[in-house]
Design brief:
Layout: H1 3-6, H2 10-35, H3 39-72, H4 76-81, H5 86-113, H6 119-142, H7 146-150, H8 157-177, H9 179-192
Amino acid sequence: MTIKRLLPGGSAGNQQLTAVVAAILLLLLAIEGATLLQLGSLLTVHAFVGMLLIPLVGLKLASTGWRMLRYYLGGEEYVERGPPHVMLRVLIAPLIVLSTVVLFGTGVALLALGQTSGTVVGLHKASFIVWFGATALHVLGHALELPRLLRTRARGIAFRVSVVAVTVVAGAFLATATLPAADRLQDRATSQIGLDAA
């Protein structure tokens, strides 16, 4: 089976997939960001949404990574579309990838270890600061083109919708499976700040 048959739609299809995933991520990241305003009482929601995001973030990294790979390997359609702006490609993208891996990796570690303080929490917070700054620049660099990309029509749309749907379901399954750990983390955080004493 050729790559064109496996991934229908070429570079236009890749752009459409990336845009759809980006739109979903923006919505979920807005919810995740809102939990930071009351993290003490919304830690379970924060952890749930964080786990829900993992497969979607993986899909976004895969779709953008595929575009870069095809561009640098000389894929005609991808070369014609050109690379992203040099600043986004050389500086911002590596920062986003590295900080994303650390941010979500430490988030999973916090759930697994049941920690609400210590080195891993510090790494989680520090990686968030780097991630937020880099991602804000990335979003600003692409925000104006997102509506146009969402309207893109390319062959293989049913395949891409299926991929996104399966990814969302996988995220929901992962988030649900880790909900008991998130509840335990919430209980620990609540007891540490004395809310249980009331």
